[in-house]
Recover the amino acids of this structure.
């Protein structure tokens, strides 16, 4: 039963079944010792790959590298433990850089940690209110546009460390920062580029044509390229620094220093993550922000942006994981787990985290199939801090910049971006380019907000174009019989909502004055909103004023519920509801009998005349073809 529930997350699962949905499903199916070994191996390798990446992402945000490691440890472990995806790996990601870097510059580490905490609370609320499936309604051009924009921003920011530039000041916005880097070009250090470019070349080895890749030694093809490139870069920088006069490059040890027990430590402190109150961490001015309603009010917009981006990235990553592992994740369980991870991480100095597509794919490739692998990845990073911290301080900053350049390229999905521009409808291309431009020039929050609004308006225009109404032919072959005089059929199709109601009912204005009854065919109306209801009520009032009867046929589903709640029900002599056209003809027959009893002159003559013509035609047919 647990497996069935997990594979169909759209079923009605109670809230108490959400925490650790993936792990409980795995254990219920039976967890073998062989899979445990594979998960340990995969988790260890992913941890080694994630180690430099977590540091590079923290540095790109503007905080010490160990805070990226603390994020991967705390958020990575608890998101895997409590989540709804079997193989997803969570931690700091490149997508957050464009949101967190300006936030850190404006409010300092304290604002960064409090925003992550508030984002975690928002994510838990999204999970509790079952909003995980709503992420699917964010259009593809919006996600592609802001993702590609983020990639451009990240790649541009790495130019500083790749060239060893010394900026006079570090602006918050993209264009100003590009100008500042351009002015700082005379300060470039060629030694930084001499270390960064070979690192990038090794990282790009898997992109070689298969024919050339097959010529490499087999053991090199099996080693993850970051695990090969970064240690070689560190050894090369150390050796050149000892033997080449004038050689100098920035390393983690030379750039970052931490005060531990009164001693200044270079690079990564070789200690466990320490507990800290997020609001007591230093702000932009070096003073703690404190926790107050004013602080929450100031940071809440940024926290909401972090929560939305985290939810989008994590659930997209979970969808990718499902495609690889042929599983189904529980989006609400994943959001709640991500919220818990983001609440706990700031209390240990961790920055916001989300699902990481690249690390998740690496986890699957190395054999990880359960949350145990992602939990092992977090423990591996913890052991690396305790055992390898002195060695990590030798990593050159240019090498980490090269690693982020590769991340940015993978994140950009340039081929998909260009393909979409070539083949997509113009409206989708407009949304894509708008989100891309706004992300690069302004920020991701503005880009996503404008992109979703623009995509929604375009969608409503498309839906309005497929919603229409028209008068049907009187003698259409689909009808059970000929229509009486003075009765017409008005076909409605498409959703009857605020963008289409006027368009769908517009043809009513052309109906002739001698009409006595209108049959509204509603089989092709899947839904309606209050605007459609009000528009229909206006039509019915005008029909009642002209003594025209309304008959609705085939009203169903959500549209029927809206009409019923709006008070549209059977009213003798004014409104009738029928299931099929056969029922409509019964209603019309009943009306004709009423007309006869009331002796309604012209209509009675038309009915009697039609009956007389039909009888005469039958008699003539029988005379000419005697049995």
């Amino acid at each position: 039963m647990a497996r069935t529930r997990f594979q169909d997350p759209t079923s009605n699962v109670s809230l108490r079944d959400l925490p650790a949905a993936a792990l409980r499903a795995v254990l219920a199916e039976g967890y073998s010792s062989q899979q445990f070994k594979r998960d340990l191996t995969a988790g260890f390798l992913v941890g080694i790959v994630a180690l430099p990446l977590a540091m590079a992402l923290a540095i790109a945000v503007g905080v010490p590298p160990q805070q990226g490691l603390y994020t991967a440890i705390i958020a990575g472990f608890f998101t895997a433990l409590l989540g709804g995806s079997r193989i997803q790996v969570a931690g700091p990601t490149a997508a957050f850089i464009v949101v967190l870097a300006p936030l850190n510059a404006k409010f300092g580490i304290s604002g960064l940690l409090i925003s992550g905490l508030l984002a975690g609370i928002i994510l838990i609320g999204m999970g509790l209110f079952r909003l995980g499936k709503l992420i699917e309604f964010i259009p593809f051009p919006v996600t592609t546009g802001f993702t590609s924009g983020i990639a451009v921003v990240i790649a541009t920011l790495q130019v500083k460390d790749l060239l060893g530039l010394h900026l006079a000041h570090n602006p918050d916005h993209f264009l100003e920062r590009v100008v500042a880097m351009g002015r700082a070009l005379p300060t470039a250090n060629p030694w930084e580029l001499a270390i960064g470019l070979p690192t990038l070349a090794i990282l790009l080895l898997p992109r070689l044509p298969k024919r050339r890749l097959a010529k490499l030694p087999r053991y090199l093809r099996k080693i993850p390229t970051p695990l090969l490139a970064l240690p070689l870069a560190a050894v090369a920088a150390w050796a050149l620094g000892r033997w080449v006069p004038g050689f100098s490059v920035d390393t983690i040890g030379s750039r970052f220093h931490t005060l531990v027990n009164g001693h200044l430590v270079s690079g990564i402190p070789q200690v466990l993550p320490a507990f800290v109150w997020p609001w007591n961490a230093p702000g932009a001015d070096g003073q703690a922000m404190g926790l107050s309603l004013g602080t929450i009010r100031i940071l809440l917009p940024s926290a909401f942006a972090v929560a939305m981006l985290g939810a989008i990235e994590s659930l997209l990553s979970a969808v990718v994981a499902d495609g690889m592992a042929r599983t189904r994740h529980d989006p609400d369980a994943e959001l709640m787990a991500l919220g818990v991870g983001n609440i706990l991480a700031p209390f240990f100095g961790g920055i916001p985290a989300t699902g990481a597509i690249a690390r998740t794919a690496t986890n699957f490739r190395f054999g990880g199939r359960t949350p145990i692998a992602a939990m092992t990845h977090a423990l591996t990073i913890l052991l690396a801090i305790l055992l390898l911290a002195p060695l990590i301080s030798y990593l050159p900053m240019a090498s980490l910049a090269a690693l982020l350049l590769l991340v940015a390229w993978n994140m950009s999905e340039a081929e998909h971006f260009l393909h979409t521009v070539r083949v997509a409808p113009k409206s989708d291309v407009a949304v894509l380019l708008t989100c891309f431009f706004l992300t690069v020039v302004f920020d991701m929050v503005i880009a996503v907000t404008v992109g979703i609004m623009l995509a929604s308006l375009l969608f409503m225009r498309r839906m309005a174009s497929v919603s229409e109404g028209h008068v049907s032919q009187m003698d259409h072959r689909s009808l059970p019989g000929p229509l009486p005089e003075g009765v017409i059929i008005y076909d409605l199709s498409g959703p009857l909502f605020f963008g289409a109601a006027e368009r769908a009912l517009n043809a009513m204005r052309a109906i002739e004055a001698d009409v006595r009854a209108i049959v509204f065919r509603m089989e092709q109306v899947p839904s309606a909103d209050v605007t459609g209801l009000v528009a229909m009520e206006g039509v019915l009032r005008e029909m009642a004023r002209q003594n025209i009867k309304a008959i609705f046929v085939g009203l169903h589903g959500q549209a029927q519920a809206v009409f019923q709640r709006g008070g549209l029900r059977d009213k003798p002599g004014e409104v009738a509801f029928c299931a099929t056209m056969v029922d409509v003809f019964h209603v019309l027959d009943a009306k004709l009998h009423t007309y006869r009893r009331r002796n309604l002159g012209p209509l009675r003559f038309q009915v009697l005349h039609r009956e007389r013509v039909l009888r005469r035609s039958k008699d003539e047919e029988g005379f000419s073809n005697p049995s």
About this structure: The chain is about 60% helix and 5% strand. The chain has two domains: 32-458, 468-624.
